[in-house]
């Protein structure tokens, strides 16, 4: 017993206990981290080709090891991509936001620079760097049994304050904005919820379950299909544009009437 007590007071005992605690914490995190359904597995050839694409197109901002980079002033050139997962790459590259065309407050959606195969290879490389959200499979996106009412409720509670109740998008601060969701592919909507690109919060399965994400995607696609049954949408920006149009038309009519009456009086 005395020998055991002596070992407990050894100078390195605290270090050993700390290392064991860190290993246990990392193991529990890896075990309980939410994971989405992965659309496909990647080969080592995919990873190798993805690394070549990364070094040629992404490393100048994200670093040669995807660890992120800063300029001399401490401003972030590109964040670390370790642990962001394949879904983040598929969203950013698949929507043309990355590689960025030029520096700015926010990456704009544009025609993709890489084809589907290159995007998949790049996603394979980034996925190999650390665990993260994977590209959703067809089952996760199957809207056959989706609940549109539930999807609409979830969207209005969690998303409409930035994206607008009709998904038309809206302005944020400092030159940033929430983009329109019209015409966006189902998997990219799902991936955006999973990864939280740019100013968007992350909605993992602890926040919004996989089935609820599917309902949100189905609701937004239903909005695309239905269009504007009430007539001219006026951009779907709500009372601001409606009021502007009303005042413009009413004031134009009033001015026109005043000019006509004045001319008639002469």
UniProtKB/TrEMBL annotation:
Entry-linked Gene3D superfamilies: Cytochrome c-like domain
**Compartments where found:** Cell membrane
Residue ranges of domain Cytochrome c in the record: 45-224
Per the record, the domain of life is: Bacteria
Key word Transferase present in the record?
no
Give the catalytic activity. Answer: a quinol + 2 Fe(III)-[cytochrome c](out) = a quinone + 2 Fe(II)-[cytochrome c](out) + 2 H(+)(out)
User: Keywords on this record?
Assistant: Cell membrane, Electron transport, Heme, Iron, Membrane, Metal-binding, Repeat, Respiratory chain, Translocase, Transmembrane, Transmembrane helix, Transport
**Membrane-topology descriptor:** Multi-pass membrane protein
Query: What EC number(s) does this enzyme carry?
Result: 7.1.1.8
Q: Which InterPro entries match?
A: bc1_cytC-su, Cyt_c-like_dom, Cyt_c-like_dom_sf, Cytochrome_c_Oxidase_Subunit
Q: Where are the transmembrane segments?
A: 244-263
| Subunit-structure text | The cytochrome bc1 complex is composed of a cytochrome b (QcrB), the Rieske iron-sulfur protein (QcrA) and a diheme cytochrome c (QcrC) subunit.
Protein name (record): Cytochrome bc1 complex cytochrome c subunit
Gene source species: Brachybacterium kimchii
């Amino acid at each position: 017993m005395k020998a055991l007590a002596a070992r407990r007071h050894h100078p390195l005992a605290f270090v050993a206990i700390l290392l064991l605690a860190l290993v246990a914490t990392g193991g529990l995190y890896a075990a309980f981290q939410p994971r989405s359904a992965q659309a496909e597995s990647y080969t080592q050839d995919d990873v190798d080709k993805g690394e070549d694409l990364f070094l040629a197109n992404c490393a100048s901002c994200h670093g040669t090891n995807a660890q992120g980079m800063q300029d001399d002033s401490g401003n972030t050139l590109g964040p670390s991509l370790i642990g962001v997962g394949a879904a983040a790459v598929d969203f950013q590259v698949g929507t043309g936001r990355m590689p960025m065309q030029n520096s700015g407050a926010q990456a704009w959606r544009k025609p993709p620079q890489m084809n589907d195969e290159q995007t998949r290879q790049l996603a394979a490389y980034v996925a190999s760097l650390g665990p993260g959200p994977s590209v959703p499979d067809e089952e996760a996106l199957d809207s056959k049994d989706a609940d549109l009412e539930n999807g609409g409720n979830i969207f209005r509670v969690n998303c409409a304050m930035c994206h607008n109740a009709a998904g038309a998008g809206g302005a944020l601060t400092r030159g940033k904005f929430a983009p329109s969701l019209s015409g966006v592919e189902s998997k990219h909507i799902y991936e955006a919820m999973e990864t939280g690109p740019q100013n968007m919060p992350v909605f993992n399965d602890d926040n919004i379950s996989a089935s609820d994400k599917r309902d949100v995607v189905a609701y937004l696609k239903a909005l695309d299909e239905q269009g504007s049954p009430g007539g001219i949408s006026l951009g779907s920006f709500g009372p601001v544009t409606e009021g502007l149009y009303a005042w413009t038309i009413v004031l134009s009519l009033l001015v026109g009437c005043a000019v006509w009456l004045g001319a008639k009086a002469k």
